[in-house]
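User: Hi! I have a protein structure encoded as tokens and I'd like to know what sequence might fold into it. I'm fairly new to this, so please keep things simple.
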């Protein structure tokens, strides 16, 4: 949810969106999606000030042309990555982002985290990958009936274990190696993931609000990171860039 009523986006935006050279229809799309709303001014990170256009009713209003410029930069990076069959790990555990992240990642058969980030997912990947494989094997054995040779009590224990492991490993089945990029929705809520990526020099693309330090990530996209419509619009643009990149893959990559 935005900190302002997104149903009134167009009306509110009339007095706060600057005259720009952007496509008016594109600008209107961004306004309707509620992308322009940040956090309360009291929470603003100093490094975010260049991306802020105004403050209304105590809420920071993002400079949409700058947001779009940042989105284009991130999109081009994702496009080039897609040309090389890069592996994208997408993270978003807030209710507004969960199913959007799920759909985005599954469309490209990429790994994702929508429930809980497990510390060491990247920095302790060698050990984690063994646990993921065990989880996958256990689910496969249950699906094919291989666990039926055990007692009912043992089968129940296996079921409980699978449910518990779901909280950590569901979505990570495609994480066959360290990712080429970490895509994050809301850095503040996933700071551990971002720190792990930075430690391993894995590029980070992130949707960030006005309370976040943009210098924490390589490709910050200033936007409303609490609003479902805002997140959906931005992921949609990144999705289109990835599809462009996939279509432009060199023949050598396609034939792998």
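Assistant: Happy to help. Inverse folding works backwards from shape to sequence: for each of the 256 positions I chose a residue that suits the local structure. Here it is:
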């Amino acid at each position: 949810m935005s900190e302002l009523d997104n149903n009134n986006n167009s009306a509110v935006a009339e007095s706060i969106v600057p005259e720009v050279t952007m496509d008016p229809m594109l600008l209107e799309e961004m306004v309707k999606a509620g992308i322009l709303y940040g956090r309360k001014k009291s929470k603003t990170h100093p490094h975010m000030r260049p991306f802020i256009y105004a403050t209304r009713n105590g809420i920071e209003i993002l400079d949409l042309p700058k947001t779009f410029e940042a989105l284009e930069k991130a999109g081009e990076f994702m496009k080039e990555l897609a040309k090389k069959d890069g592996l994208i790990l997408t993270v978003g555990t807030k209710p507004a982002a969960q199913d959007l992240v799920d759909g985005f990642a599954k469309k490209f058969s990429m790994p994702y985290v929508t429930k809980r980030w497990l510390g060491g997912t990247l920095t302790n990947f060698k050990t984690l990958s063994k646990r993921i494989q065990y989880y996958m094997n256990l689910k496969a054995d249950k699906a094919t009936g291989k666990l039926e040779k055990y007692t009912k009590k043992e089968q129940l224990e296996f079921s409980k274990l699978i449910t518990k492991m779901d909280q950590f490993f569901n979505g990570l089945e495609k994480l066959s190696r360290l990712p080429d990029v970490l895509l994050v929705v809301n850095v503040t809520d996933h700071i551990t993931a971002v720190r792990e990526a930075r430690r391993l020099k894995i590029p980070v693309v992130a949707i960030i609000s006005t309370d976040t330090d943009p210098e924490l990530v390589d490709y910050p996209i200033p936007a409303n990171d609490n609003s479902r419509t805002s997140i959906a619009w931005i992921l949609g643009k990144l999705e289109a860039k990835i599809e462009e990149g996939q279509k432009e893959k060199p023949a050598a990559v396609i034939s792998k």
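A useful reference point when you look it over: The mean pLDDT is 90. Feel free to ask if any position seems puzzling.
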